[in-house]
Amino acid sequence: MYLAESLSKVLGARRSGGTAGVRLRVGRNVLFLGLTSLITDVSSEMVAAVLPLYLVYTLEMSPLVLGAVDGIYQGAAVLVRVATGLFADRWRRLKEAAGAGYAVSVLCKLGFIAAGSSAAAIAVVVAADRTGTGMRTAPRDALISLSAPPDALGAAFGAHRLLDTVGAMLGPLLAFALLGLVPGRFDAIFVVSFCVGLVGLAVFAFFVERPVASATAPGDRSTSMAEVWGLLRQPRFVALLAISAVLAATTLSDGLLYLVVQQQSGFDRRWLPLCWVWAGLWYALLALPLGHLADRLGRMRVFVGGYLLLAAAYALLLAGPRHLAGAAVVVALVGATYAATDGVLMAAAAPIVPEALRTTGMALLGTATGLARLAASILFGAVWTWWGRQQAVAVFLVGVLAATAAAAWLSARPRPEAAT
Amino acid sequence: MTTASARTRLMLFLAVAGPALALAIGYVVRARSHDRLAPGAGVDEVARIRSAPHVLFRDLELEPEGTFGHLALTPVEPPSGGERRARTMSVLSCVRVHVGGDRGICLELLDENARKATLRVFGPDLGELWSTPLDGLPSRARVSPDGKLGAVTVFVTGHSYSDGAMSTRTTLLDLQALRVLVADLEELLVTRDGQKLEATGENFWGVTFAPSGPTFHATLGASGKTWLLEGDLASRTLHAVREDVECPSRSPDGSKLAFKKRRVGQDGWRLHVLELATMQERALDEPRSIDDQVEWLDDQRILYKHGANVYALGIAAGSRPEVYLERASSPAVARR
């Protein structure tokens, strides 16, 4: 899963950096934070990329179970992030908060082995794993922001995001290699993931320094419920919230989507983890160009239009690609969809949300889309299980087209200017 | 930690990362080379195990290399000492295996994506007697206790019984004459309460044979329901006798059917036993959802696959499921 927030910070900071240009040199602390993220992402994405194989093919669970587990995987982190973000701000022990999050996720990798073949236990482990992810995201971003001078924030987040994305692609590759080395031994994947996570935790614990936090440091002011309510009374923000949630509700979890691709096109299931790598590649290639395009054409246009790419992916799936090339196009379209929507949504939110409430606003957007995707995954899994795979894809194709039309209408509507 | 010197920090890091990497590499290497076969286990070992009641199964262990998915044997009773059961490999690779009398059936998957499989019939020495291509993904295989009849079910479309769009084909075989008796159970007349059963989207699966004679049970799925069918090969008819019974399995004494039943209000199946004399059914003490056609270990205990293991469960109330074979599926008890 690609978290949008950091990328938007990159884009935003670059623009605000103005004529100074992008600084290529990033500090030691940012580098180690990025390295931590890279290693941790290898650890978590290698598990995410084998979950469909493990749940559906080895444990023979229904797509509904995969939908629920995958939905939790993609939704839980955002939900927890809101809560822990507030907590970390008040507690002001960023390194401890982030470290606890890393540690929870590392321990959960062993939980997968302990959970055995119980769907409920696996769901609990996935939820706990993603809780760890959610716990660490906000304090980690705060650590980054405190580890770089204000005029180098863009480069800092950019470098971090780059390392993060590299990890997200290396993880599924490692899982693929391991499954080739020891076919069917998912316990080996979990143990290796645990060990890799431990190394990431060690980098974080021993090499990341506690930055000297100034009282007025950006990003560590806590938000009150009153501010959240104020934001929820702004019509433009509420419209954006509704649009993003409705569109996210038509977006399948990666695991479900790639499983459908694999079953429709019939490529060997062992290649499934490579879908994450392929989509990640297209995301990495297109995120910046599409971000620039959004700045020129209008962010809402690119954001809403991005979902037409998803509709194309669904339509192609429905047509039933019977070969690898068709599957590759579908997965590339999914990666392109993320590139057109993820960061762009946050960039679209930036001018609507007052600067003081930016973190809260983005957290709210993340929560709404996370919840919507959780619901989408469960719904898709249910329709697939009880009705059929093709039918489920058809339902979601209609859904994404309707949602895109509704979103286009909503965002084109003239709206009253916000009061302040 | 912030006051520690760079050297101390590096040492601390290596103290964690070194063992972590060693564990990761060691675990994978061990998984690759994990030696389970006793040296020299081979023809003699097979003969020894086969001289007593034993269980054939699909081996899901990955080591030694090249054995995954192959047919394996183990004595019914574990060797003294309670150690891991000895397994012995055969060159047959079977997704589903079943035996009865002097015959066995092995369903080998050739190409999952093209849905190509082979049905192999083997004799008393595991030697192949006959094979025929199967179009579909192998799902169930049964041999009658006297070794005369066989039945196989494949998925023509779909992968699972929980897939609403799946369709199956069930074929009956004469294992002595080595020929197909009924290519598709659809060919037989299905009646219910003396009337021809009218239903849409009919699927047949999960045949089980009576201890002797040409009668059998199977599952009919149609119009969103499932029925227990009682079949008679002599008259080529099937009668729907009861609703909500899937993958029946007749006990060795013929008195009971173990089966899976859709759970109410949740996904999956619950194992049940039906007393044929009274037609009373009872849920078994297995809380998990089981998708398998169970195999009777004896008249009081059943075997079935869950996850990657085969479990044994007594049918008496208060029994607890126990792992019978780790990393195995499709257990078939050879009772001779």
Account of the 3D structure:
The complex is a heterodimer of chains A (420) and B (336). By secondary structure, chain A is mainly alpha-helical. Chain A has 16 helices and no strands. By secondary structure, chain B is mostly beta strands. Chain B is 11% helix and 47% strand. Chain B is built from 2 helices and 26 strands. In chain B, strands 13-12-17-16-15-14 form a 6-stranded mixed beta sheet, with no helix packed on it. Chain B has a 4-stranded antiparallel beta sheet with strand order 3-2-1-26. Chains A and B meet through helix 8, helix 15 and helix 16 of A and helix 1 of B.
Largest pleated sheet of chain B: 6 strands, mixed
Sequence stretches where pLDDT stays below 50 over 5 or more residues of chain B: 34-42
Strand segment tally of chain B:
26
Give the CA-CA distance, first to last residue of chain A: 35 Å
Largest sheet of chain A: none
Mean pLDDT across residues of chain B: 86
Structural class of chain B: mainly beta
Describe the structure concisely for a colleague.
The complex is a heterodimer of chains A (about 425) and B (about 325). Chain A is globular. Chain A has 16 helices and no strands.
Task: Indicate the topology.
The complex is a heterodimer of chains A (420) and B (336).
Chain A: H1 4-17, H2 28-48, H3 51-58, H4 63-91, H5 94-115, H6 119-147, H7 153-181, H8 186-207, H9 225-232, H10 235-248, H11 254-265, H12 273-297, H13 299-319, H14 324-349, H15 358-386, H16 389-412
Helix pairs in contact in A: 1-7, 1-14, 2-5, 2-7, 2-8, 3-4, 4-6, 4-15, 5-6, 5-8, 6-7, 7-12, 10-15, 10-16, 11-14, 12-13, 12-14, 13-14, 13-16, 15-16
Chain B: H1 6-33, H2 43-50, E1 54-59, E2 70-75, E3 88-93, E4 96-100, E5 103-111, E6 116-122, E7 128-135, E8 137-143, E9 149-157, E10 167-174, E11 179-182, E12 189-192, E13 195-196, E14 203-209, E15 215-222, E16 225-232, E17 237-243, E18 246-250, E19 256-262, E20 269-275, E21 280-283, E22 295-296, E23 301-306, E24 309-314, E25 322-325, E26 328-334
Parallel strand pairs in B: 12-17
Antiparallel strand pairs in B: 1-2, 1-26, 2-3, 4-5, 5-6, 6-7, 8-9, 9-10, 10-11, 12-13, 14-15, 15-16, 16-17, 18-19, 19-20, 20-21, 22-23, 23-24, 24-25
